[in-house]
Specification:
Bound molecules: 2-acetamido-2-deoxy-beta-D-glucopyranose
Pfam family, one: OLF
Structural class: alpha+beta
Subcellular location: Secreted
Order of helices and strands: HEEHHHEEEEEEHEEEEEEEEEEEEEEEE
Radius of gyration: 32 Å
Main location: secreted
Keywords: Secreted, Signal
Shape: elongated
Protein name: Olfactomedin-like domain-containing protein
Number of domains: 3
Number of strands: 24
């Protein structure tokens, strides 16, 4: 629509010049009249015919037509691009539908990217305005139209943003269906809670659920997931915490998956001053959040039922060693079929991981095992059936489980179980024994994996 406006106006301007030239005139000036109208002053020379000046003006006109045509082509290309974006969005929705038949399909929900491209479109229009740097009043109306075009584009942009929101919600609904589908699968899966297997042999492709509830990709640090031992009535609960730094200030609780997607929390816990955490390696277990707290450096819990805090210092745990993707990750909480765990490193272990079992009633360490995985080389760690699994980076979009330590037998294994990641860094990775899935907070995005056992 908008390139057409521009074209029509230019054609009328150009034909005005052409008809003047046809007259055989040489001296033409333009100005703006008192009431803002465009005035053309034509001087007809009575002696020599100024052919060279006419030619020059015709050349200038041609150049301008060329320039405007180039700009029109550029705009056409961009408006064509927008049509493609919309088509891509539609295709995304179709992709989700196909996910229902195959939950292992890898989907990227990149609305952020679409928004950026829409903004680029707006910038291009501004650039176009600047590049048509003509001072003649005839072209002022062109400027006007270009300004109007920018407004139209802005309207288009906001229109498309609301469209994006609608599509996002549609997308979420489809995702919900997928989740229900997987839950059905889980319900008939007799292996939940069962440790009669010989460990992990593979992970599915990641399911990228969506950007965090703050809708900010700058909220790189955080975590999300489900309670690993839900209290009665809280079986469908999801939790989320995110921030721009490793500091931990608050937790959001959602009654079910729908509410998580709609970002409609039933509870928002702002951690009481003095009880703020760090490191983002928390876990929710038995309606209690376990996290690291630095004053004093301790493992801390917030009981969501009673809203009470408590902490225990682990004297051996060192604040000096963190995982490779973030600072401050000194204590990593995990839960599996056997209960609650905390993973840290000590001066005595020289930075190698130590796995400790937490006794829930007393909130003390029951037993601890030393492993040979250097914490600083590890991306994150989690527990499954009493076995600790450690991950590390292979490439920008590939991670691998490279090491396991079995607390029952003391056996350790070098592994190479690669898995895809959506973004390079992640700050929370935990297994959930209630659905046998891995939950990852992948630099702002909610990601999950199905786990395949031997
Ligand atoms: C055009 O007309 C103006 C006004 O009479 C005059 O000053 C100027 O010299 C003319 N230019 C040419 C190229 O004839
Ligand atoms: C959308 O999907 C259709 C059919 O698979 C395909 O022809 C088209 O190129 C896709 N469009 C985009 C923008 O990916
Ligand atoms: C616009 O035109 C004016 C006058 O011809 C010139 O001084 C200025 O540098 C031009 N600006 C750009 C961005 O081309
Ligand atoms: C620009 O938009 C304004 C307000 O809609 C309108 O009055 C004006 O005529 C438009 N200008 C052009 C050149 O289309
Ligand atoms: C949490 O608080 C509830 C209610 O006071 C209590 O019954 C439960 O044992 C507490 N859980 C933990 C792990 O502290």
């Amino acid at each position: 629509m908008f390139p057409l406006l521009l074209l029509l106006s230019f054609v009328s301007a150009a034909s005005a010049w052409t008809s003047l030239a046809d007259w055989g005139s040489g001296n033409v000036t333009t100005s703006v009249g008192d009431s803002g109208q465009c005035l053309c002053h034509v001087y007809l020379p009575d002696t020599t015919f100024p052919a060279s000046r006419v030619e020059h003006m015709q050349q200038v006109t041609k150049d301008l037509i060329l320039e405007v045509n180039i700009q029109i082509t550029t705009i056409d290309r961009y408006s064509g691009k927008m049509v493609t974006f919309l088509s891509e969005l539609k295709n995304l929705t179709i992709k989700v539908a196909s996910l229902e038949s195959n939950p292992d399909n890898y989907i990227k929900l990149d609305f952020e990217l679409l928004r950026i491209e829409l903004r680029e479109f707006e910038a291009l229009v501004t650039q176009l305005k600047d590049s048509l740097n003509v001072t003649s009043p005839i072209f002022d109306s062109l400027y006007d139209e270009i300004r109007n075009m920018t407004l139209i584009v802005n309207q288009l942009e906001s229109y498309d943003k609301s469209n994006l929101e609608v599509i996002r919600i549609e997308f979420a609904k489809l995702q919900k269906k997928l989740e229900d589908c997987q839950r059905e699968e889980d319900n008939i899966n007799p292996d939940i809670g069962n440790c009669k297997h010989e460990g992990i042999v593979g992970l599915s492709k990641p399911t990228v659920i969506q950007l965090n509830a703050n809708l900010l990709s700058s909220y790189q640090y955080g975590g999300w997931g489900k309670d690993s031992k839900p209290a009665r009535g809280y079986e469908s609960m999801y939790w989320y915490s995110g921030y721009t730094s490793p500091s931990v200030y608050n937790f959001y609780l959602y009654s079910d998956y729908d509410k998580l997607i709609l970002r409609s929390s039933f509870k928002h816990h702002d951690l009481t001053e003095g009880w703020e955490g760090t490191g983002n390696n928390y876990i929710v277990h038995g309606n209690v959040i376990y996290y690291q707290h630095n004053t004093p450096f301790s493992m801390t819990k917030l009981n969501l039922t009673s809203a009470k805090y408590d902490y225990r210092v682990i004297p051996e745990a060192a604040q000096k060693f963190s995982y490779s993707y973030s600072t401050g990750q000194n204590m990593d909480f995990a839960a599996d079929e056997n209960g609650l765990w905390v993973i840290y490193a000590t001066e005595e272990s020289k930075g190698k991981l130590v796995v400790a079992k937490i006794d829930e009633p007393t909130f003390g360490i029951e037993e601890a095992w030393s492993t040979s995985a250097y914490k600083q080389l590890v991306g994150n760690a989690f527990m499954v059936c009493g076995v600790m699994y450690a991950t590390r980076s292979v490439a920008l979009n590939t991670e691998e489980i490279f090491y396991s330590y079995d607390t029952k037998s003391g056996q350790e294994r070098q592994l190479s179980i690669p898995f895809e990641k959506f973004q390079e860094k992640y700050f929370n990775l935990d297994y959930n024994p209630s659905d046998q899935k891995l939950y990852m907070y992948n630099a702002g995005y909610y990601v999950s994996y199905n786990v395949k056992f031997n």
